Amino acid sequence: MNNSWYKKCMPKVKDIAPYLPIISKNIKKIDGVKSIYVWGSYASNINEPNFRVKDVDLLIKTNFNSGDLIAVDEDIIQKICTNKYLEEQGYDPLAVKFSKQFIKLTKHNIDHWTISSDKKLLHWGPIVINKSESKDIKKEAENYASKQSGYNKNKISKLSEKIRRNWYQYYCDYIGRYLSNMPSGWYQSGEENLRNIFKNTIKI
Questions:
Q1: pLDDT tens figures, 165-202
Q2: What distance in Å separates the CA atoms of residue 173 and residue 164, rounded to the nearest whole number?
Q3: What angle do CA 6, 178, 41 make, to 5 degrees?
Q4: For the chain, what are the domain ranges?
Q5: 3-state secondary structure labels for all residues of 104-154
């Protein structure tokens, strides 16, 4: 495990797998965490060890109400506040603490998701609410990255780290422009079928 997967751009499934138990162990130490799942492209391609993953979608089932999580944003996370101050301002101190500790895991190419106690799916950072629209935007971003970099997504898997990083930067830039001017924080997804979500996750 000398070569950390999170330092690579679009690591392979087999690069990520050994680290998930370690990440899970650390997340379980955070107050309010009930269970941890990985989903998205990693989970969908778990049987393809050489599949390259843009980011790792971690889904945390929590004890927090969606309203308490949605109230948390980047500003309150960055402030040094006492629990008394947070309560006086209408925040749940434990929801703020959970968010701060979970979001710290940015170096691991992690996309942060939670399921609240009232069964709402939330994502840290702006998202496209409509699932079909989200797929369209990601496809457009892939096409843009391929055009700008000169390399098709399906072909960059075997190319150099530098080329993959360049392609991925174009991909992120496109999505970033689409979601620009929206503050960081928890956003509620329009996805309501949690049973279908859990069908496509792997508990870690």
A1: 888 888 888 887 877 777 789 999 888 888 888 888 99
A2: 14
A3: 40
A4: 10-127+183-203, 133-178
A5: CHHHHCEEEEEECCCCCEEEECCCCCCHHHHHHHHHHHHHHHHHHHCCCHH
Please give the mean pLDDT across all residues of the chain.
Answer: 86
pLDDT digits 0-9 by tens, 115-155: 999 999 999 887 765 556 677 888 888 899 999 988 887 77
Angle between helices 131-149 and 161-178 (to 10 degrees): 130
Closest Cα to residue 69, out of 33, 41, 37, 35? 33
- Strand 186-188 and strand 121-124: pairing? antiparallel
The pLDDT of residue 2: 43
| Residue for token pair 């393809």 | 48
- Residue 136 CA to residue 171 CA, distance in Å, equals 13
Rounded-to-integer distance, Cα 103 and Cα 95, Å: 12
What's the confidence (pLDDT) of residue 7?
Answer: 65
From CA 13, how far away is CA 136, in angstroms rounded?
Answer: 24
The closest of 108, 96, 12, 91 to 62, measured between CA atoms, is 96
Pick from 74, 116, 123, 118: nearest CA to 96: 74
